[in-house]
Every structure is written in structure tokens, then in C-alpha cells.
Amino acid sequence: MSLRRTFMLFDENRSNKLKRKQLHKYLQDYRYNFPKDLEEKLFEIFDTTKKGSIDYNEFISAVLGKMNDFRRQIAQKAFEKLDKENKGKVDYNAIRENYNADKHPEVLNGNRTKQEILARFIDMFEYHFNLLNKNKNKHEATLEEFEEFYNYISVFIDNDKYFEDMMNRIWGLKGNENFGKVVKFVKYTNPYI
Fold it and tell me: Quick one: 85 and 41 in the same domain?
């Protein structure tokens, strides 16, 4: 989220894009004094669409990377489960109705209730979603937006098996009998999932 705030600070005209001049100002303000040719190379790396500007998704992808195909497919399965009518979008009610916090580590150790974990998840999902969208009144997410949220979450999880078991547990995709075993070996790093 701090990356988004930083991006927005330098996106002075709120175009959701950074031009070369804005990237240069960003680098100067943070005292990154790159030679001009290296700064140009950096811009080219971030500008994956080669449109002469860096949009937020390009920026985040370059900084954080994309989740691997294995994780992306799991996120797609969760979305498909929520999108029961095949509309290509899910509303927040479907998320609230299907999110399962029963085996969340904080629920299991008694620090939080299932309702508190669900509320934190919805808050984080809405916050992330609203940062990416101009239409703040929209209360539904497309597959691309759902995947982008899990791309962000994925950064905090270094084990594919843990990611799979977490998604199975949260969204009831398939048996999650291994989750308790996996959680003992993987440090729980994100309080929102």
C-alpha cells in the first residue's frame, strides 16, 4: 500500500501513469542519483507496454513481480467459485458469504474472532480495490482485480504449498487437511489473510 501512496504522490495529474519527467523527479526526491542512461533503462524496464509512460500495474509488477502460474490458477478457481452466475465479476456479498476464517491462526489461538478476521479481510480487499479504481461506488471485482489482490498477498508468502492450502481453507476449494501441518513450517507473515 505504501508503494501505491508513493506512486500517487508523483502522479501529479492523477492520470494513473508516470511520465519520464515524473520518474526523474521521484528518483531525485528519494536521492537516487542515477546517470541519465541508467535512469532511461529503468524507465524502459518499468514501461512494459512501451507506451511512453508507466501505469500503476506496470510499476507494481516491476517492483513486486507477478505470482506464478500455479498461484494464479488457484486464485482463478477461487474467483470461479464466487462467480456462481458466470458474470465475470463477484460482489462483496459473495466474498462475505464464502470467506471462511475458521482455521485462521489468530482464530485458532483465540486472539481474534471469525467475524474480526472477515472484517479485516474485507477492509483490506476494499482498500486495495479502491486504490486501483476510480469508481469508488463499485462493489464488485473482476477476475483481473481479484488476481491483482492475490498478487499483492502472494508477495508475503514464499511457499506455494502454503498459498494453496490457505486458498483452499479460505474459499473451500478442496480439502485443506494439510493446512495445520504446513502452517507449522511457514512463518505467518500477513495478518489480513
Answer: no
Containing domain of residue 18, as a range? 2-64
Which spans in the chain are helix H? 2-10, 20-29, 36-46, 56-64, 69-82, 92-98, 105-108, 114-132, 143-154, 160-171, 179-185
What tens digit of pLDDT does each residue of 89-119 get? Answer: 998 889 889 999 988 889 999 999 999 999 9
Residue 87, classed as helix, strand or coil, is: coil
Residue that is last in its domain, among 64, 86, 103 = 64
Q: pLDDT tens-digit profile of 121-132?
A: 988 888 777 766
Residues 42 and 110 in one domain: no
For residues 39, 45, 49 and 55, what is the CA-based torsion angle, rounded to 10 degrees? -70
Same domain for 102 and 40: no
Class of residue 104 by CB neighbours under 10 A (exposed 0-12, middle 13-18, buried 19+): buried
pTM over 0.85: no
